[in-house]
Fold this protein.
Amino acid sequence: MNERKAQFFNAHLPNTLQPNSCGEAFAPSNIALAKYWGKRDYELNLPTNGSLSISLGTLGTRTTLKPADKDSVSLNGKSLSLDTPFAQKVIAFIDLFRRSQPLPLTIETHNTIPTAAGLASSASGFAALTLAINDLFNLDLAQTTLSAMARIGSGSASRSLWHGFVQWDKGEQTDGSDSIAQPIASNWRDLRVGLLALSHAEKHTTSRDGMTHTAETSPLFSVWPAQAERDKAQIHQAIVNQDFHELGATAEANALAMHATMLAARPSLTYFLPETLATIAAVQKARADGLPVYLTIDAGPNVKLLYLAKDEADIRHTFAGVACVNPFQ
Ligand code: DP6
């Protein structure tokens, strides 16, 4: 186990863990409006820039943990072999808490994200697992500590501990103690997110590998962290002002700038499919025709729309198959 990860967990955990009969938690999925792309520390998942996200309400992960005779892992009601990548990731993360203590567990994970939505579930997965562990062992850790722990599972998981808008500051400390996410007090009731699933195929390059390759080879990466910080600040201000056009335009530009850093990598990297480019064109045309809609895209081919509740009928009509999410429900 990495020494610095172990140090971080040791510093926040009691020497001996005492389990309750059950630990349970839900964490929502999140979509970054100002993206995390690039790590300054690969073990602790410390980013080169801050990011800001919106959570997806009831779409996310529910995790239940119970003491047992041996470890077992299930996903959406189906038992998994412990040598599957999913089970191995889950157990490696729980081992950061258990350390050398023998504490076998039954680990049940349910994703409430329909597979058809084309969303990754690692952010809500690690966040729900962290919260369920906190519950099982009565750890009573501060939300910011839990966020830093979830971050070590997957960077974007640091933002999945809360509903609504969440900002993850990059921090300056080498131990990551100030690289934590926090909620932004805002209740933007008529903001909506539309999910357009264009492909369900596994992504060819993990976010981790994509970030590494971009940071190491893309001549555009050097300007990215400062631009991303400016975008994050601008989006935060747009949230305070409930300025939809400022929020949408900045989020769209930020996502396309992130993808531009990848396209410029050597060799070039892209998660776009022909359908992704066609959808970008369709969103920009709909906007030119008067429909207030913006887009964002993560490390995958699927497109997420940002729009207001009053336009939902037009959004459904223009973008067939869109799944509409009310983040503040
Ligand atoms: C493009 O959080 O999946 O979705 O820290 O390596 O697990 P790791 O990466 P991950 O990266 C997410 C990248 C992104 C942007 C974002 O969610 O901010």
About this structure: Residues 32, 35-37, 45, 51, 122, 154-156, 207-208, 298-299 surround DP6 (CB under 6 Å).
